[in-house]
Amino acid sequence: MGAVMRIRQLPDTLVNQIAAGEVIERPAAAIKELVENAIDAESTQIEVELVEGGKNLMIVRDNGYGMGPDDLMAALDRHATSKLPTSDLTHICFLGFRGEALPSIASVSRMKISTRERGADAYEIEVIDGEKQPIKPSAQKDGTTIEVRELFSLTPARLKFLKTSATEYGAVKDMLQRLAMAYPSISFRLTHNGATSFHYPVLSVDERIQAEQRLRQIMGDDFIKNAIPINADRNGIRLVGWIGKPTHNVGTAQKQFLFVNGRSVRDKLLLGAIRAGYMDVMAKDRYPVVSLSLTLPPEEVDVNVHPAKAEVRFRDSAIVRGLIVSTIRHALHDQDISPVTSLTDALVARLGTQRAQHIGSGYPPIYSPNAKGATYSGLSEHLTAAYSPIPIQPSMVFSPSVRAEQVTEEMEEIISFEAYPLGSAKAQLHENYIITQTADGVVIVDQHAAHERLVYERFKSDMANKGIPSQGFLTPEIITMDDVDCARLIESRDLFKKSGLEIESFGAGAIAVRSVPSVLVGRLDLRALLQDLADDLRDHEKATALEEKINHVLSTMACHGSVRSGRRLTLPEMNALLRDMEKTPLAAQCNHGRPTFVALSLDDIEKLFGRK
Asked: Is 158 exposed, middle or buried (0-12, 13-18, 19+ CB in 10 A)?
């Protein structure tokens, strides 16, 4: 008997279902593929409709250039695409290019496509149980509408892995907002269970204004008020967008919107570069809010390294990382220290409500005995009984006791300070908060946090000018590690030497440490530091752990060497601190990313008092 053949050719239906598992693991992934097709079709309006988070029904409508009957039939064939005119995978200029999205989705759902080319007849086709039905005439307007019903109905095992309708809806909304942010010249609308979730219309023909308006639509005015615009170029690579100030941070990385050639990505290299850019101004458990778009020649980036195209690979990742890190750091150092009001309309409304509640409840009761025993009466009643109204005479109207010509030089100096961004110091509250008056409001400064940043920046400046002193060991410290990690560290030893860490190879799987930065002596676990450096090199191709360690020590020294909470300051000392803040980089936040001051505009104050 001949050998039994174990290898068999899989049927097309099963092949498509396997492919769907790679690309279409949930409704959001299917919507992403369909919306990207709509963007590639030069649509200016895209609408997405969901029922039960997309598990029951997904509809994507666009006004793109549509398809003729031949293209409509071919679009459902596996690996058939109009987006690769040549076989060059190094020059990809479209979002979707593999040609597997439509047949993969159709293989695990019930699909209907209606389409009309501009100036031509409309057609539609259905796919039932993975089989294409005959093409029929349609009433479709210009563009394409794709309906996907009962996702994974043909693969019940995969259906069990879907989350709740609310969770799946949230994933679709987040994904669609990222695409809407990347393409501000396209109008987007999302509807869930018959209710409009969002509608982002295009309100201007100016591309720069479109981008800012789309950010406002998605992120809100509060982000724009607390964001810094970015525009940088290096070696043919362009980085544009907005980065939030360090004090405008959140608890997760969900608010980091990253785009590469118009493609929304969640790339480790880019996320690591953002973390490094904010390294010196934000606590490790907080995350900045950013929207950054990277544009570079298609041949410089490989978008075909991830099934869902969520990650990319750069030909020269060092240039990309360096551009992002340096651009963020320069933007943060150069940011204007002018105060931005800390109160939103919602907060003003809440304070107003609390004020009304306090007024409605009256003042604390005052004890007053009477013939029937001790009772309490309100303060207003007490005052009314004790004092009779006194008519106001013209002579009683307030008039200033100091005339203009009597203003002293000291008063003139204090008044002149109000022209500065942080204004003129007026008082100190609770021996920690400095109250200042500016030209258009008031500012409250945390004296300890502010001085901590000033001392920290002085330490860093001294170290940059004088270099980082190192302390050598009488005999080298030998650290054993994985041989691959050792190789990574040795390749970067020249970089470490500039920071005071001197290492060399000590055979297979061992590192000899000859010196360390002197500021880290007695504060350092050498093995943990080297492992952190190796991990950085593996994940981000750049080691920042040593810089973080040094900065952490300097930050701790600055904390202990700064003006403490509870110390009383004179007015000249307060104003000197304010002037130093105005000329020190990153003075708007302390070393831990918290704000050093908050502002209250006259407009906010008038709202609180019901004047507006």
From this structure: middle
- β pairing state of 122-128 and 136-137: antiparallel
Residue ranges of domains in the chain: 12-200, 220-333, 336-350+409-612
Task: Quick: pLDDT tens for 3-30.
Answer: 676 777 777 766 666 655 556 788 998 9
Q: What is the pTM of this model?
A: 0.71
| Alpha carbon distance 44, 53 (integer Å) | 24
Which positions ≥6 away from 494 have C-beta within 8 Å? none
pLDDT at 405 over 50: no
Beta-bridge partner residues of 198: 190
Residue 302 phi, psi (nearest 5): -105, 115
Please tell me the distance from the alpha carbon of residue 62 to that of residue 38, in angstroms, as a whole number: 6
CATH T-level fold of 336-350+409-612? formyl-coa transferase, domain 3 (3.30.1540)
Superfamily of domain 12-200: Histidine kinase-like ATPase, C-terminal domain (3.30.565.10)
Architecture of the 220-333 domain: 2-Layer Sandwich (3.30)
Q: What is the identity of the amino acid at 241?
A: G
pLDDT band at 417 (very low <50, low <70, confident <90, very high): confident
Please say whether the beta carbons of 244 and 227 come within 8 A.
yes
- What single string gives the DSSP state of each residue in 228-239? EEEEEEETTEEE
> Residue 503: pLDDT band by 50, 70, 90 thresholds?
very high
Residue 195 CB coordination number (10 Å): 7
